[in-house]
Amino acid sequence: MTQLVLKNTMLRVIVDVDRGAEITHIQPSTGNNLLFFADWQAPLPASRSQSYGSDVLDWLSEYRGGWQELFPNAGGSGTVLGTPVPFHGEVSRSRWSWNTIVPELEVILSTPARLPLVLERRMRLEPDRPVLHIEERVTNEAGFPVPYIWGHHPAWGPPLADTGSVIDLPAGTLTADAGLDGPHVDLEPGSTHSWSITQDRRGNRIDLSRVPAGPVQRLCYLSDLREGWYAVRNPAIRIGVGLAWDTAVFPHLWMWQEIAGGSGMPWYGRARITALEPATQFPAHGLEQAVTQGQAHIIQPGEVRETALTLVLFEATDQPVRRVAHNGDILY
After folding, report:
1. CA distance 124 to 322
2. Among 173, 215, 165, which Cα is nearest to 192's?
3. DSSP symbols for 274-316
4. CB within 8 A of 141, min separation 6: which ones?
5. Backbone angles phi, psi at 129, to 5 degrees
6. Is 92 helix (H, G, I), strand (E, B) or coil?
7. From CA 161, how far away is CA 144, in angstroms rounded?
8. Share of the chain above pLDDT 70, in %
9. Interatomic CA distance for residues 108 and 58, integer angstroms
10. pLDDT tens, position by position, 154-168
11. Model confidence pLDDT, tens digit, residues 217-276
């Protein structure tokens, strides 16, 4: 594990370059990791043994939490331009190249994909604020248009996944994934809801903006967002995290929760996760189906596509967040 550490007096960020440039830690300088990141020994990762016979299970066997980048695929595997594209995209598990620009404050990372695309990420920590800027670009090296799916997969753990933590976001339409079902799935598969007060599949009133006690499993997709931002806050301990992004690139938000509900691999009933994931499209059926259904984003020959995200830590209260600005300001 090659770790890159960005830090100032208020924020510490750790990146695992050897495994997808995954962000493993986002933590206040005097606090614990806000991302879910488990020290599970089991399940045995496929890379240390042999394949589970499924790229989904292989990916999940390696999963311990953190923040992955999903590109040029998110969701189910398939074949595109004659090339196999695995579950959640190969760059989420590849070894990235990197170059430090400012020690402990700024780094550039990059990786090619299986398709003729190159992804570059610049991570820049402000020297005197708990604000991380992520600036990205995708380049098409081919002489023809190339489809892709792109998403960010940050999984927030305790304390932000504790019971009573609150999610603030600009209201949109929420669709429950049609393929996820089980005893702890509380939303009817394929059902549509308005954020945030709705009913579960048994007719009980629920507030989707409140992290439940569990056990609960959810995979949902938010569309029709007025702006690209969200905040997750735990007023009891006065900690919150905000994320802002460009909806021209990521118009949708995937919401995935494993609140001590999943009994299968790798959860085994021990995960508390609330993940809110900016994405180019939905549902999570993967790039091959997205191409077939006209949902994939297309980048033209030689085109460079750029975007930016901003993450900020803030002191949370009972007061709802009304906006997370791209400069890192929290507006109430």
Report:
1. 25
2. 173
3. EEEEEESS-SSB-HHHHHHTT-SEEE-TT-EEEEEEEEEEE--
4. 116, 117, 118, 302
5. -140, 155
6. helix
7. 43
8. 100
9. 28
10. 999 999 999 999 999
11. 999 999 999 999 999 999 999 999 999 999 999 999 999 999 987 889 999 999 999 999
